[in-house]
């Protein structure tokens, strides 16, 4: 069987060890010759790479590992690029969250002004990766998690229309695992779902078991009572902020009792409550630096210091399983049904054909084939039109270096109360992002 070569771009990501562990779990069905790590921060990447090298030597010595900051070395002769870069790293995520909050507006990584700021940094970073891949491995596919996925997807649709990049998100599968658990099923893979929306902005309209029986009555009832928690209790192993989000899904679902929502809709439906419960001085970025980043880099350093990964607490997760499933679907033309962020082009009949929407697709070696969603209701359609307008204005603003379009984008965001507040936030974001954004005129 062919052995595949994979580049992980953003090699220093906290998600890299999980993906490598997942790749090792699937070596029998998805053999690998070489994994290359690529990052523009060689020191950060080295800790992850050195630990993963020890791990691979112990568990899969036949797999080669190479870590590089040189694009030619990292992108030559590969079949897949799994990308998860964070341009500006957690220091800039902290700014994305704290600047809007200072103005009384939701401070979030991918939604509202923070997501717009992050989008303006991610666009050139991801385009650069696409160009490296097309230069050095023109037949490869890029499977991209880099956020904000909605803005990145619109940017690659518009600015690299022929590129083989697939933009994905792990939030729906994370929620589906919780739904499966609430139904007493062993995994989301025992369900078949229908879902539509934009990235971090969507709804499940149908959930069935493999025999075709609808599970929606039980699911809607459960979510209306408990959100995505089990009986209203905190989910063991989840951090407090995620547990609060999973509980809040109950209030989000109340807006449309027939469907169940993506958790991220809370930032658009209840921005006042979000701001009221936020700590302006200690946001999610601080929690992640003190939690996931500290844990992953601590574990990697411990492997390096001990010279063995035998007692390591590093593990695989849903995030890793989804991207590896996607690579297998393309490699072996499995036509697996997966949610993907793709150009609408008629999938949602009464919606902008050029919008990047998140819908079920059958994925094979020629990429995703969209399933037809049909018509969507006025409430969701109107919300989505407003949000797509924001995403498209950001990409146009980036392309044209237009202050006006960025101001319009912030003003249009449902999270921002007025054009004046939008301008105040934008001016602060420009100042904080001088090293990353193009100059706006
Ligand atoms: N789509 C999804 O559902 C989903 C889920 C989880 C994480 N993510 C995204 O995955 C990414 C990684 O998240 P993380 O928390 O592990 O971040 P992280 O900061 O730990 O890792 C990101 C890495 O990217 C590197 N990087 C930054 N700019 C780069 C560039 N231009 N070229 C190459 N490397 C670059 C950084 O040096 C860093 O090592 C983020 O964009 C995050 O939002 C997306
Ligand atoms: O605040 P963070 O960095 O912990 O999470 C932000 C990301 O949240 C989603 O991904 C979650 C996923 O939903 C959950 O099931 C688990 O796998 O953790 C992931 C990362 O924490 C979201 O889909 C991403 O786009 C965000 O980056
Ligand atoms: Mn996501």
Automatic annotation (TrEMBL):
PANTHER family, alphabetized: 6-PHOSPHO-BETA-GLUCOSIDASE-RELATED, MALTOSE-6'-PHOSPHATE GLUCOSIDASE
Cofactor binding annotation: Binds 1 NAD(+) per subunit.
Similarity remark: Belongs to the glycosyl hydrolase 4 family.
Keywords: Glycosidase, Hydrolase, Manganese, Metal-binding, NAD
CC cofactor: NAD(+)
InterPro entries: GlycHydrolase_4_CS, Glyco_hydro_4, Glyco_hydro_4_C, Lactate_DH/Glyco_Ohase_4_C, NAD(P)-bd_dom_sf
Pfam family, one: Glyco_hydro_4C
Gene3D superfamilies per record: Lactate dehydrogenase/glycoside hydrolase, family 4, C-terminal, NAD(P)-binding Rossmann-like Domain
The protein's name in its UniProt record: 6-phospho-alpha-glucosidase
Top-rank taxon: Bacteria
The Glycosyl hydrolase family 4 C-terminal domain, residue ranges: 195-416
